[in-house]
Amino acid sequence: MDVFEQWESEVRGYCRTFPTVFKKASNARQIDEAGRSYIDFFAGAGVLNFGHNNPRMKQALIDFINADGVAHSLDMFTDVKRAFIQAFAELILKPRGMTHKMQFTGPTGTNAVEAALKLARRVTGRRSVLAFSHGFHGMTLGSLACTANEYFRNAAGVPLEHVQRLSLEQPLDTLAAEMADSSSGYEKPAAILVEVIQAEGGVNVLSEDWLKALRAFARQVGALFIIDDIQVGCGRTGSYFSFDGMDLDPDIVCLAKGIGGFGTPLAMNLAKPEHDRHWSPGEHTGTFRGQGLSFVAGREALRYFEDETLMAEVRRKGAFMAEKLNDIARAHSGQNFEVRGRGMIQALDTHDGAFAKTVVSQCFDNGLLIGGCGTAGRVLKLMPPLTIPDDDLEKGLGILENALRSVVTAA
Ligand SMILES: Cc1ncc(COP(=O)(O)O)c(C=O)c1O
Question: For a substitution probing ligand 1, which of 146, 257, 288 has the most ligand atoms within 8 Å of its CB?
Answer without folding.
Answer: 257
